[in-house]
Write a structure and sequence with these properties.
The structure holds 2 protein chains of 2 kinds. By secondary structure, chain A is mainly alpha-helical. Helix content of chain A is 76%, strand content 0%. Chain A contains 9 helices and no strands. The radius of gyration of chain A is 17 Å and the shape is globular. By secondary structure, chain B is an alpha+beta fold. Chain B is built from 7 helices and 8 strands; from the N terminus they run αααααααββββββββ. In chain B, strands 5-4-7-8-1-2-3-6 form an 8-stranded antiparallel beta sheet. In chain B, strand 1 and strand 2 form a beta hairpin. In chain B, helix 1 runs parallel beside helix 3. The radius of gyration of chain B is 22 Å and the shape is globular. Classes of the chains: A mainly alpha, B alpha+beta. The interface between A and B is large, with 68 and 51 residues.
């Protein structure tokens, strides 16, 4: 990352080699269009390039910083385009993708991804729903409350409980590996 | 007992807080080790969630990204990064030396200043029963001077500033730097010698700076410091 901040474009390419598939995949999942995902992923890495000097390793890993930039780029793009249809598609797809039936899906290439899917699928439905609406649909907690009809406090609790269980599950899984 | 933003840590890791909520939670995290550890773990869980979406990328995407970076040239240095760097790197070495030099210059200048009717020096020389910390001009704006005054007895700390008129649409804003997050600490539109009472609590070891910001002030620093010092 220090090389990127120093103006080394090849280092940006190496960063892309490490995280490009995740960044592109997240944006694609959020927007539901490969053309839009390509444009927004390019913008996201451009933001990384422009903001590289602001990256603070003591505030988190490169990959979580990169993920935040990618998600924000997708959310900004959707807002700027007013793409309600894409947004609804993303919500529906994301809910389907965390459904229990997909846990056994042999198409899933990554074992780690499979474990995460299983962890998500093990959550109560209402926790899965708020995590999905927050993460894949980019809705605020207030927007989630309106959409689901649940009180804001309940939404916040579900986000916390869902993430805590996911974190614990992944932590246990890391220990078992 | 300290209250930890437990619900909001998970929401922050998921990226579902708005800008103001994020600022508040980040400010807490920067000063709370247990929340910092918890947030990092939650962020890694969020990244694991992201990995489930991993997929092949378009063939030309890498080339487009790298070529665009080459065309644009070096990354831009962000104002907030330079703000933090000012305290992170030079303070332990450069600023104490600079402060010592400045103090020597200031003391030497006081006598002459008194003769010249320098209002800034007179304001400083009239202080009693308080700790005074000189703020170092960064060179961003010519002709600025400032000192932090910490009165004995617990009264609010304040700045004595000597400033040129702020440009149209801008105001002078004071900041306290504790941990990673600069805290907005008051604004002034005055020119010449003025005082600015800090509106955020100041603790030993905090940094203090003054920047030019949009009129009305901002909650998140955007400008580069024109004066800086450390308690």
């Amino acid at each position: 990352m220090s090389r990127v901040a120093g103006g080394d474009a090849d280092a940006l390419g190496e960063l892309y080699d490490h995280y490009g598939r995740v960044v592109f995949g997240v944006i694609y999942r959020m927007l539901g269009s490969p053309e839009s995902a390509e444009e927004v992923a390019q913008n996201a890495f451009h933001s990384v390039w422009r903001q590289a000097t602001a990256y603070r390793p003591d505030r988190g890993s490169v990959r979580t910083w990169l993920l935040a930039i990618a998600r924000n780029a997708a959310i900004d793009w959707r807002r700027s385009k007013g793409n309600r249809m894409g947004r609804e598609t993303a919500i529906d797809e994301s809910l389907m993708l965390v459904d229990e039936r997909r846990v056994e899906d042999t198409v899933i290439a990554s074992l780690r991804a499979q474990r995460v899917r299983a962890a998500v699928a093990s959550l109560p439905r209402e926790q899965r729903e708020v995590l999905s609406l927050a993460f894949w649909s980019g809705l605020s907690q207030t927007e989630i409350a309106k959409r689901t009809g649940a009180p804001l406090g309940t939404v916040k609790s579900r986000v916390r409980l869902g993430m805590a269980r996911l974190r614990e599950w992944l932590g246990d899984d890391e220990v078992r590996r | 007992m300290t209250s930890h933003p437990t619900d909001d840590l998970a929401a922050l890791a998921l990226g579902t807080l708005d800008a103001e909520e994020t600022r508040v939670v980040r400010a807490h995290v920067s000063a709370c080790e247990s929340c910092d550890v918890e947030l990092r773990a939650l962020e890694e869980a969020a990244f694991a969630l992201a990995e489930t979406a991993e997929r092949d990328t378009p063939d030309s995407l890498r080339t487009k990204i790298v070529e665009r970076a080459r065309r644009e040239g070096r990354p831009r240095r962000s104002p907030s990064a330079s703000f933090l760097d000012l305290f992170r790197r030079p303070v332990p070495l450069a600023i104490p030396v600079a402060l010592a030099v400045l103090l020597a210059i200031s003391l030497a200048a006081y006598a002459g200043a008194q003769r010249d009717g320098d209002r800034y020096a007179r304001a400083l020389s009239g202080i009693a029963g308080a700790k005074v910390v000189a703020l170092v001009p960064t060179g961003e704006v010519a002709g600025v001077r400032g000192s932090l005054v910490i009165p004995a007895g617990g009264a609010a700390p304040y700045l004595i500033l000597d400033l040129p008129a702020a440009p149209s649409g801008k105001t002078w804003e004071a900041w306290i730097l504790r941990g990673e997050t600069p805290l907005a600490a008051g604004i002034t539109n005055d020119r010449g010698v003025t005082t600015l009472v800090l509106t955020a609590p100041l603790a030993s070891g905090d940094g203090v700076a003054v920047t030019l910001e949009p009129s009305g002030g901002v909650e998140r620093v955007t400008g580069t410091p024109v004066l800086a010092g450390k308690t």
